[in-house]
Amino acid sequence: MIKITVKKSSKATPEDTINALKRGQLKGIDRVGREFQDAIKRSLINGTRSGRKYPGLPSRSSAPGEVPKSQSGRLAKKVVYEGSGNGIEVTNVVEYSEYLEQGTMNMARRPHMGGVFRELDDDFLDIMVHTPLEEVKKLK
User: Fold this and answer.
1) pTM over 0.90
2) Is there a contact between 114 and 97 (Cβ–Cβ < 8 Å)?
3) Of 41, 73, 78, 96, whose CB neighbour count within 10 A is largest?
4) CA angle, 82 then 108 then 106, to 5°
5) What is the pLDDT of residues 37-91, one digit of tens each?
6) What DSSP element (H or E) covers 87?
């Protein structure tokens, strides 16, 4: 359970407090989106993989179930997010991203989005609780 206590500051009206909470919510959503985006990019770029080494590619490819290794940089560069008052949508706009994430009849999954979310969900909750409260504290 989360308990929020808002103490009356010197000149802040209830409307000021509500507006500060709304600003904080939007800032929190933006921050979560950026952190999620950055974490996905890091997971695609960093680390080694145990899959096959194909001639002409700079890195060893991923084995089934591993996060794919970004070979050309496109997969890592095309992670985008859009935040609004309703939440965050994080996508990878590379046309083959969904095939890697979900797998196909001929290729096992190489998940790179969902796993990052599960790793960071506690951090996201912390950001979404504390960022609006920080905005309210600025009213003093």
Assistant:
1) no
2) no
3) 41
4) 110
5) 999 999 999 989 999 999 999 999 999 999 999 999 999 999 999 988 778 889 9
6) strand 87-92
**What is the structure's pLDDT at 83?**
87
CA distances to 60, 62, 130 from 54, rounded to whole Å, are: 7, 11, 46
The single residue listed with the structure tokens 């890195």 is 59
Cβ atoms of 53 and 60 closer than 8 Å:
yes
- List b or e across 7-43, with b for residues whose CB sees 16 or more CB atoms inside 10 angstroms: eeeeebeeeebeebbebbbbbbbbbbbebbbebbbeb
Q: Is 101 left (phi over 0), alpha (psi -120 to 50) or beta?
A: alpha
d(CA 134, CA 93): 33
Question: What element of type H or E holds 92?
Answer: strand 87-92
- Tokens 């996060």 locate to 67
Residue 6 exposed, middle or buried by CB count within 10 Å (0-12, 13-18, 19+) = middle
